[in-house]
Structure formats: C-alpha cells, structure tokens
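Lab notebook: predicted structure, single chain.

Context: the supervisor wants predicted structures on file for every construct in the current expression panel, including those that have not yet been purified. This is the next one on the list. No modifications to the sequence; it matches the entry in the shared construct table.
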Amino acid sequence: MTAALRAAERFRRSRFLQGYCKGKATWDPAYPAVAELLRNSSHPVLDIGCGVGLLAAYLRESGCGQRILGIEPDAAKIQIATELVAGGYPLLEFQTGDARALPDFSGDIVMLDVLHYMPADVQRGVLEQIAARIRPGGRAMIRTTFRDNSWRYYATMVEEGFVRISGWIRGGACHFPTRDEVAAPFQGPEWKVSVSPMWGRTPFNSHMVEIHRVPVD
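Prediction complete. Output recorded below exactly as produced.
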C-alpha cells in the first residue's frame, strides 16, 4: 500500500472524507515533493493551513519522523485532525490558528494553497513572519498561484469560484501574488529561492516556491 493510501486510511470514518484524502494524496504532486525535501531533515515542521491533517499523515507514512505542528483557522478541521491523525502518530499537534499570527517556531515551514486567500496587504506580513521562523539550514515550501496572463491562471480563478460556493474554503476574494511579491522578503546572501511548476495533472497555475535559509558565518 502506498503512502497516500495509508494516509487516507486515517479518515475511513467518513467515506466522503476518505475518498477526498485518497484522491488528494495520490494525485497532488506537492505531497511527494514536500516529503522528499523533508525526509532527511531533523528540524520541526510548521504546516500552515493544515486542514484535516492529511499532509502530516502523508509525511509520517513517507518516513518523515520529525515533530509537526499544524495550524488551521477552521476549528472543525482541527478537531478531525486531532481525532483521526494526531492519535495515530507520535510528535503531532494541531492547533486552531491563523497565518496572520504564527506561533513561536523555528524550523521548516510548509504552506500549501493558503497565501492567495489573504488580502494583498496581509501577504507580505505573513511572508515576513515565515522568514523569521525558518531555522538556518531550514526551508520553507510555499505553493501558490501566481498572477500572470497564462490560461492556467484564468482556469484557477474559475476553480476558486466553485471552491467558495462549495463552502470547503471560507473567506473573501482571492488575491493572487506575483513571483516578485512572494520572493521579496527573502533577499540577501542567506536566502536561496527557487520556483517550479506544481500543478500536476490539473489545469491550474500552481507553483512551488522553495526557500532555503543558508547558514551564514
């Protein structure tokens, strides 16, 4: 059984949720990409916008044993993560929390498909908070949609409308940042920033921004 299927098994209490998690963990290319980067890291992980804890379960099933703290503003999702995921693995904790006020933390950071749900004036502050919490030698992995003129960008805008109607994601209008806006807080010799497509088999304009904080003497 694959890591994706083993992670989805945690949610078998609900057939709908298990099916969603199975599809998400199987087809989302961000999950194996994050697991590959974190597998050999000993730093704790902060999962911003952790939802029901699926990424944490996937990381555990992929051989990542470090401490993981997941935060999520939706208390109902945190309850699911706590009941179905935290009890099944060591060193996992889930808290109701907002990216606008991150907890004290030092380590690696993951934030998948969260940034564009914040207003433009909030995004820079959140990215600055992330920069302050990446441990020297650590990484942040931020997946977001870039604002550009590609057909994928417009497909993403349509998809986000359906997501909001469904009620799975709560909040106001999306603001999609540019590449330069995401990279702005990570300038200087201690930072290495790389960007790669991370849309998999979807038509969406998803990219992974990997930020590495290089130890500086």
